[in-house]
Amino acid sequence: MMHMTLYWGIKVTLLFDSWKTDSWFSYLLSLLACFVFSAFYQYLEDRRIRLKAIAVSNPPQQPQSVNVTLLTPKRRASSAKFATALLFGINSAIGYLLMLAVMSFNGGVFLAIVLGLTAGYLLFRSGDEEVVAVDNPCACA
Questions:
Q1: What's the whole-number mean pLDDT along residues 131-135?
Q2: Where are the transmembrane segments (predicted)?
């Protein structure tokens, strides 16, 4: 039976039927895995933002022409843009897996993920103020 409220037991099933904890050792190992995985999420997010800043600051050069048309030719995708998109996809998948782990409703898993995200932000992203890469100023993007 799946829990629908927050509980604090050591018996939890995370993400897969085969990932079950039944002892303190397996539970603490799972919490450590959640902590490391969520800190890694922040690391990948930092790499993605920095790569995006590089892609935005170094756009592919278009040949200068005298005639300016209303329809500009499509810009070719650079390798930095492709890598940024790939990192975005991987990071989104990790984020959804972390969300599903939190949905186990285990209090220890919740705390491990929140503390991992916090530690990862502190280690990898606390200096993000100098890196700005804005595509869309909309808050919902």
A1: 54
A2: 24-44, 82-99, 105-124
The β-bridge partners of 20 are: 13
- Residue that is written with structure tokens 């629908």 in the block: 4
**3-class DSSP assignment, residue 33:** helix
Q: Which of 105, 85, 109 is nearest to 37 (CA)?
A: 109
* Length of the chain counted residue by residue: 141
* Closest-CA residue to 91 (of 115, 124, 60): 124
What single string gives the DSSP state of each residue in 55-116? HHHSPPPPPP-SSPPSSPPPPPPPHHHHHHHHHHHHHHHHHHHHHHHHTT-BHHHHHHHHHH
Q: Which two tokens stand for residue 61?
A: 């050069």
**pTM of the entire structure?**
0.76
Task: Say if residue 9 is exposed, middle or buried (CB neighbours under 10 Å; 0-12, 13-18, 19+).
Answer: exposed
Q: How far is CA 118 from CA 34, 79, 115, in A?
A: 12, 31, 5
